Amino acid sequence: MNVLLVRNCKIFFRNKKGVFSSLIAALVVIVLYVFFLGDNMKKSLVELENADHIIDAWIMSGFISVASMTTTLGAMGLMIRDKENGCIKDFFCSPLKEWQIAGGYVLSSYIVGVLMSIFTLIAAEIYIVCRGGELLDLLSMAMVLGVILLTVLASSAMMYLLISLFSHSDTYSTVSSVIAPLSGFLTGIYIPVGTLPEGLQTVVKCFPISHGAALMRQVMMKEPMDAGLSKVSGEFAVDFKETLGITMTLGSHQDNVWIHIGILLITAVIFFGLSVLILKYKKREQ
Length: 286
Description:
Elements: H1 2-14, H2 16-43, H3 51-75, H4 77-85, H5 87-93, H6 98-130, H7 138-163, H8 169-186, H9 198-206, H10 208-220, H11 222-228, H12 234-243, E1 249-250, E2 253-254, H13 257-285
Antiparallel strand pairs: 1-2
Helix pairs in contact: 1-6, 2-3, 3-6, 3-7, 3-8, 3-10, 6-7, 6-13, 7-10, 7-13, 10-13
């Protein structure tokens, strides 16, 4: 499995075009924010003196969350190429077990996703500082890295299960073109969660990566929110956090940090287990 993992990582990073394309969806978030979304959101927060810094932190945390999905999805393109050129049949004939084959792809996409998400974190921090904001302190930075590790793990398992259902690059390209913008919507970046119809809010809250985005926002937005929300009413602060997807409520129950973490871990386990079962079925068909 280790050999398969290293092989997959090397092939991915040799393909400079593929590395860049895996970041395109996240970069689109920045472009949309700078030219379209940013001003409108800041105008709606005239009550807050530091609205610029709050919204910058909000969009950058979403930027990192989207990257956790698009980069792992990009890394999974190698599995499609292995199916098309017959390499996957060689793996089936090797002593590797199904969970080891699945683990090789998932772990390689996990490593890719973590490295690329850290790159986006660095870019996000540079952007925030250039806009007059402050760098995260060491504790907050460690917490963000922990959220990245969890979110990318869930994303890797989800993307592997999704892509394992397809066998051709054309289908993969079509799916990628849909998943990339959809990830921005489901993490509440293009349209804040609280402004969506109630049914769509429930869909977003049931999407596992949105819980990673919520954790990311809670950490990256803490300092600017503490400063900006200190002079407003408690009711406004609660509505503000709900609207921007910083906190999530299903029914009358507000999710806490451990629920978010649990959802991400359970998602990784369930999707990886389903992936192994599908791989066993496909191996029998060979």
